[in-house]
Amino acid sequence: MARQFTQQRLLWMAVALLSAALIATAWQLQHSRAAALTQKDIDAAVLRTLTTQSLPSPSAMAADKIMPSVVRVLSYGKDEKGKEVEQGVGTGVVIVDKGVILTNLHVVNGADRLKITFYDGSESAASVTGAKPENDLAVLQAHTIPDDLPAATMRSTQDLVAGDGVVAVGFPFGIGPSVSAGVISGFDREFKSPEGKQVIGNLIQFDAAANPGNSGGPLVTMDGEVIGIVTGILNPTSARTFVGIGFAVPIESAAAAAGLPPF
After folding, report:
1. I need a labelling partner for 140 at 20 to 30 A (CA). Which of 39, 46, 91, 224 fits?
2. Is residue 35 in some structural domain?
3. pTM greater than the 0.90 cutoff
4. Which residues are part of the catalytic machinery?
5. Helices (H), the chain
């Protein structure tokens, strides 16, 4: 009986030792496999991901970031018979989430009534609360504000150079929001309005497509940060269409119009 007990005890000990040996072997194999992972393996995995998945372009990512802060601005006046008519269409950008919007002064100048259309499709009346005529800028206050209205992120133009990528978002000829991409062509440019009544200086020149209706819209970096407010296009002919030269007021001047601190 004692011999049988001893044999059973030895058997259980053997099983325990075998189990321990199997666990130790599995642990060693697992860690040896992890240690065998090389930088070449990692690079290959990343390459497979990049080649099998479509990533959005920098322009698309910039547009996606700024779009919720872009609004359409409709101005209304009265005709000779005193009937209300649509006077013009432009673009604006929300710079404070309380419904403070930047646009061009020429978009709203002389209007009897303003209507804002937000990204979510909701509409609001708006009032002009400030203006900076020397920069063709106006500040609007929306009367009705959507929930969770996002304000655009603004950034200094000081470290930007010609050739940096930019995106313009707006409502050219009322169509939009529309996105166009290009580069900064230069700085410190001057632009005279087609009517020849005003010369605006210290402008950013860019080549992203812009047309009537883009006025007042944001010019943004590839990070979706606002660096300027689109204010005009240069066309040596009488046509009001884009030929590759657009101008934007630097955001430093635009922010000052709204009473925001300088960068």
Report:
1. 224
2. no
3. no
4. 106, 136, 215
5. 2-35, 39-52, 58-66, 105-108, 251-257
